[in-house]
Amino acid sequence: MYSSFSTRQKERSINVMEIKVGKSKLSIIKGDITEQKTDAIVNAANQQLAPGGGVAGAIHRAAGPALWEECKRLGGCKTGQAQITKGYSLYARFVIHTVGPVFNNTEKNKTDLADSYRNSLEIAKNHGIKSISFPSISTGIFGYPVGQAAEIAISTITKFLKQNQEIELVQIVLFDDSSYNIFALEAEKYQ
Ligand code: AR6
Question: Ligand 1 centroid vs 5 CA: distance in angstroms?
Answer without folding.
Answer: 31
